[in-house]
Each structure stands twice: as C-alpha cells, then as structure tokens.
Amino acid sequence: MRKTHTYRNDRDKKVFQKYLEKVFVVWSQKIMEIKPLSNNVVIEPIEEATTTASGIVLPDTAEKDKPQKGKIVSVGPGKMSDGQRIPMEIKVGDKVIFERYSPSKIKIDGKEYLLISESDILAIID
C-alpha cells in the first residue's frame, strides 16, 4: 500500500502546493531554452479553424494554407545598429500576424515552432 503524506494543517498543504507549482514552472522553462539571435523570434503557430464560414468542416487530409498567426514564445535581444542595440517591439506572449512564407520551421520535443525575423511580423493582435 502506498503511504501518503499528511500535513499538519491546510496552510502547510498550500505552501507545499505553491512550491510544487514554482518547481514545475522552472522545469517546464528548462525544457525549451531557445534564445534567438539578433532580431529573430520563435513563434508557436496558431492553427486556423477547420470549419469554413458557411459551416463546412474541412477534413485533416484537405490541403491547408500555412499559418499566418502565432504566439511569441521567445524573443532575441534586438538588432545592432551603429554599436547600439535596437530594442524589440514585441514581447513573449504577444499574438501576431506574420508573412506566410517567411518563417523557418523547427521542431523541439516533437512540437513545431517557427523562427522568423521581427521585420516579417506584420501586426500584433490584441
């Protein structure tokens, strides 16, 4: 039989749970440590809906366009110009629209990401 841990009170249990949450966040950040160079960013693509405006459901085998929307996962330090670093206008977590054919595909831990230059990002979605 498996022995379970007993807590002295609810406060101890909450403190331990918060500790585990922090450990998990640090651990999950260590899994993917991609740091793009210069003014490049890593984007997690957002898949488009599989239903058309008229209600037709597209099967997985249908030819789909490349994604144009994504969520910023990692941001480079910025471009150098005349010995000074130009800060990036986007930040991690922003949802963006980018040029369809400009990103490079990369796979990390079986998940697909896109590597793209900041200049190929067209807009930030609020």
What attributes characterize this protein structure?
8 strands, about 130 residues, alpha+beta, 1 helix, two-stranded antiparallel sheet, about 15% helix
How would you describe what is shown here?
This protein is α+β, with helices and mostly antiparallel strands and 126 residues long. The chain is 17% helix and 32% strand. It has one helix and eight strands. It has one helix at 10-31, and strands spanning 40-45, 69-75, 79-81, 84-86, 95-98, 104-108, 111-117, 121-125. The strands form two sheets. It has a six-stranded antiparallel β-sheet, with no helix packed on it. The protein is flat, with a radius of gyration of 21 Å. The model has no long low-confidence stretch (mean pLDDT 79).
Could you give the topology of this structure?
Layout: H1 10-31, E1 40-45, E2 69-75, E3 79-81, E4 84-86, E5 95-98, E6 104-108, E7 111-117, E8 121-125
Antiparallel strand pairs: 1-2, 1-7, 2-5, 3-4, 5-8, 6-7
In short:
This protein has one helix spanning 10-31, and strands at 40-45, 69-75, 79-81, 84-86, 95-98, 104-108, 111-117, 121-125. By secondary structure, the chain is α+β, with helices and mostly antiparallel strands. The N and C termini lie far apart (52 Å).
Strand order of the largest sheet: 6-7-1-2-5-8
Q: Total number of β-strand segments?
A: 8
Q: What is the chain-wise order of helices and strands? A: HEEEEEEEE
Q: Assess the beta-strand content as a share of residues.
A: 25-35%
Q: Indicate the low-confidence ranges by residue numbers.
A: none
User: What structural class do you assign from the helix and strand content?
Assistant: alpha+beta
How many alpha or pi helices?
1
Q: Between the first and last Cα atoms, what is the distance in angstroms?
A: 52 Å
- Tell me the Rg in angstroms: 21 Å
Q: Could you say which overall geometry the principal axes of the C-alpha atoms support?
A: flat
Q: On the 0-100 scale, what is the average pLDDT?
A: 79
**Proportion of residues in helical segments:** 10-25%
Largest sheet: 6 strands, antiparallel
